[in-house]
Known about the structure:
Layout (H helix, E strand, L loop, with lengths): L1 H21 L2 H24 L8 H33 L10 H6 L6 H12 L3 E9 L2 E10 L6 E7 L7 H15 L7 E7 L3 H6 L20 H13 L3 E7 L7 E4 L5 H13 L19 E3 L2 H9 L5 H7 L4 E6 L5 H17 L1 H8 L4
Parallel strand pairs: 3-4, 3-5, 5-8, 6-7
Antiparallel strand pairs: 1-2, 2-4, 6-8
Amino acid sequence: MKSLRIVLIIAIFALSAITGFSENDLIYILTILIFAVFVFFEIRTVYLNKKNQSLSFFKSAALKIVYIILLGFTFMFIKDLSLAFGDSEKNKFKTVHTNNSEVERANGAFNFISYIEDLKDAASAFSSKADTINYKNKSFEFLTIKCEPKKQENKILIIGSVHGDEPAGALSIPLLLKDLVQNSEKYKNTALYILSPMNPVGLAFTSRQNENGCNINRDFESKTQIETNYIINAITDFKPDLILDLHENHGWYKTCLRANELCGNAFGELVCKNLSEDKIELATEAFDNDNLKPKGWDKQTLYRKLLRKIVKFGDLRSYGESNNIPVIVLECDQSLPIEKRIAICLSTIQASILNFKLLRKEKRNEI
Length: 367
């Protein structure tokens, strides 16, 4: 029986780690079934040995239950830790890796040239600069756009499409710039520094990765990519009060805002309230957080913070936190039509500007 117990424990440990790295639901189900067998044998052992135990049956059973629960938490932690390691190391290809499902959803490849022309046209009313990333003897442009009113109370850095298979962020920027011209009163106290598309090669090829096959949003720890360092230099130059990083979640759950610890809950609650008023359906759960309160506001759980202390994700939220900058990552529901996703990006930017005073007060601990 002892040898069987050891075999079961080893099997559960190994499968828990494999489940995390592979994100395979079948392996996860197999792990749960093996753990159920292990629990059965443990309970059976207590029952069969109840006459030979120095402790009372109930005390022995209680200790065994505590033991089983602790083992269960250990197995779950191993699974989540391996998942975190897998996520931090994910998408290390040698070149761009086209997301074919997103190409199919978009009825063909993304028209990158048309987008850049539209972006340049919309940016002509502001101070802007084009830079290029070279790939396969072609140049792919991205823009830095500065919208700076005379009176600046708030400074927001907006980043569009760090992941090239999440186009809504980039596509929202020309519309934002047009709104800045037409409704300048709404933005009169807010300076905007816009980087888009921040993964131009990825956007052109519908790839999550950049031209080197790197997930840019896992590179803020090692800082190996041109795009990563461009963002870092923009942060150093602009010194934003808030960073809005526009992403999409590939339809895994409804829209939510993933915030680092410097974004106050009262601010998040008001932003999410504004999004709801715009008839945007917000998530009640996302990734490891299955009880978002308010809806759509995804602050890291204590458990997730522990994992992030162990595993360096190298993402922008963590970089912002280490540099005392609030960061909100919009995770737009990608199961929606592209027009709706673009509208969600715009609503998030506008709601953040509208409630910015509250964010500033929270950071100063004035409320």
